[in-house]
Amino acid sequence: MKLSNTNQRRIIIEELRNLYTHPTADELYVIVREKLPQISLGTVYRNLELLADAGKVLKLELSGKQKRFDGNVNKHFHMRCRACGRIEDMHADKMSEIDRNLNDLVDKLKVDGYRLELNGLCNKCRAEEE
């Protein structure tokens, strides 16, 4: 899908890529409004959906939670902390083994993508629990 690069989309992507918190559309809206005071929440939602469909941002649909968005479209996984709800990027080399095993399992099929949801404790919550 080819999207025109409007000023609104450019700022939404720019602000999202400056964040590592995987914000909801509502959270990103508050930040984007600092640069675009006239933008509506609906416009942010629509643009995030279009940008996700075009592969410009990632849409994280974690079970039972509000959608979150990630400006990093490079291959990586996410872990949701069961204590604080924070979502962290996972860049583990061992994750590439999952890719290899999936390729073996889906012989002759064309898989466009998959989601893997990791749950556990972030480093901060793990330290507090110990």
Describe the structure.
By secondary structure, this protein is of the alpha+beta class. It is built from five helices and five strands; from the N terminus they run H-H-H-E-E-E-E-H-E-H. The protein has helices at residues 7-17, 25-35, 41-53, 95-105, 123-129, and strands at residues 58-60, 68-70, 77-81, 87-90, 117-120. The strands form two sheets. The chain has a three-stranded mixed sheet with strand order 4-3-5, with no helix packed on it. The model has no long low-confidence stretch (mean pLDDT 88).
Can you describe this structure in just a few lines?
With 130 residues, this protein is α+β, with helices and mostly antiparallel strands. It has helices spanning 7-17, 25-35, 41-53, 95-105, 123-129, and strands spanning 58-60, 68-70, 77-81, 87-90, 117-120.
Give the name of the CATH superfamily of the largest domain: Winged helix-like DNA-binding domain superfamily/Winged helix DNA-binding domain
The helix-and-strand class reads alpha+beta
For the record, the CATH class of the largest domain is: Mainly Alpha
Report the C-alpha radius of gyration, rounded.
17 Å
Q: In sequence order, what are the helices and strands, one letter per element?
A: HHHEEEEHEH
What's the rounded overall pLDDT mean?
Answer: 88
Q: What is the CATH topology descriptor of the largest domain?
A: Arc Repressor Mutant, subunit A
Distance between the termini: 48 Å
**What is the strand arrangement across the widest sheet?**
4-3-5
Number of domains: 2
User: What is the share of helical residues?
Assistant: 40-55%
- The geometry reads as flat
Q: What is the strand content?
A: 5-15%
Largest sheet: 3 strands, mixed
Find the count of extended strands (DSSP E, 2+ residues).
5
Helices, by number, come to 5
| CATH architectural group of the largest domain | Orthogonal Bundle
Weakly predicted, low-confidence segments: none
